[in-house]
Amino acid sequence: MIQGGDPNTKNSPNNRSSWGMGDPSQTMVPAEFNAGLPGWTHKRGILSAARRGDNINSATSQFFIMHADAPHLDGQYSIYGEVLEGMAVVDQIATTPKNSNDDPKETITMKIIKLKK
After folding, report:
1. Burial (CB count <10 Å: 0-12, 13-18, 19+), residue 93
2. In this structure, is residue 108 part of a structural domain?
3. pTM > 0.85
4. Domain count along the chain
5. Residue 107 maps to a domain
6. Region Disordered: what ranges (predicted)?
7. pLDDT in tens, 39-58
8. How far apart, in whole angstroms, are the C-alpha atoms of residue 17 and residue 63?
9. Could you give the count of Cα atoms lying within 13 Å of 86 in the half-sphere of its Cβ?
10. Residues with Cβ < 8 Å from 76, sequence gap 6 or more?
11. Does 35 score more than 70 pLDDT?
């Protein structure tokens, strides 16, 4: 999987120990498990909410995209989307060279696009 959305990687780029912890002031979103619904399993391309530790109701801005199937995550993390086009980009990110901390050796920046009604 690849993971993103942690404000600490942007706001504290030199404080790696804070990465993955998120911003505790962000509103937490309750879990909504999709296990058992047809097509909604943690398969390749699924977009799901990351969380803080073992607290299932602690999702905030962090998310992950499945690079491979991981059925053991079903019923543990909330699924809220699926990559329909562009999995080549996910593959490229997932296979980029990493350092000993499993971080990409080169910074990967996401472009944010906001949709309005």
Report:
1. middle
2. no
3. no
4. 1
5. no
6. 1-35
7. 789 999 999 999 887 888 88
8. 18
9. 9
10. 33, 56
11. no
